[in-house]
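The following block was generated as part of the benchmark described in Methods. Ligand: adenosine-3'-5'-diphosphate.
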Amino acid sequence: MVIIIENIRMPDITKLATKTGEFVGEFVDARDRKGNTIPVFQYGEDTIPAIRGNPKEQLPQLKKMEARDDDIVLCAAVKAGTHWLWEIITMLLKGTTEYAAGPKEDAMLEFRPIEELNALPSPRILNTHLRLSNLPEQFIEKKCKFVFVMRNPKDTAVSMYHHFSAEGSAFAYRGSFSDFLSMFMSGVVPHNNWTDYITGWEKDLAMNPDIPYHIIHYENLKQDPVREIKTLASYLDVTCTDDFVDDVVEKCSFRNLKKGKTATPENQRWHFMYRKGEVGDWKNWFTVAENEEFDSYLSKEMNESKFSFRYTL
Ligand code: A3P
């Protein structure tokens, strides 16, 4: 179902989820096979954790938020490496290798009140796990630049499990990793079901060919950060020296970034955002049977996708 707004093709979310005609969204539970739950707010094509902020009030306003020509929109499935990329992009745009003063959550579209997003200085590096249908319409009208981070879904699932069950995490998930996998493969997942998110964005981008975007894969950034950061800088129209790029790589290495972003008593609480930072940790968590089940789930759900993921890394 599609409506056309000034040549921009957007799914009509008002018709996706309402029986009464008025779109309000609803609070439900994401649930694993053992009955462990995480509360979420379903709003059109998105499933937002109901753990902070006020998505019910915020999301309708977000769509009408004023964009700026130089806004950068960093999009990713949850746990793809958004904190890492957000810091890298901040350094590139500011031309400094100082860490950003605040956390990336300060510029997170689904949780931050509009007035606070409006108060952020330009250039804003906004970030989100939302689908296009819930993002400000002006991002498209103003041709803001999008950056996507993508990560092997197996490592993503492991990372999500740890994030949701970490001490101090507002998700307070208490199931095992195997239990969590059943939630990951279900229809209702906090911050969206991974395959729906990826294939959904793939369709959104195909329907909106004017959106400028650049995709970075977590695994490639780990393997060759210099090459990936130079390509990203060129996409962002940032000119920088080789020495500057080397410094960004060094300051944003897993160890340094974790230290830099969690060293003080006020930012210590973000420690679980920087857990292990490796490629292939899933091999320590999936059983052989779970891996087979997951592979057949992925091949079914992703069979029409043209995006490339290295599932076996
Ligand atoms: P792990 O849980 O596998 O360690 P997000 O920022 O989207 O929430 O993603 C978090 C994941 O990115 C975590 O993965 C985290 O450790 C990893 N990460 C954060 N900073 C990183 C860095 N500098 N290098 C590599 N991985 C990093």
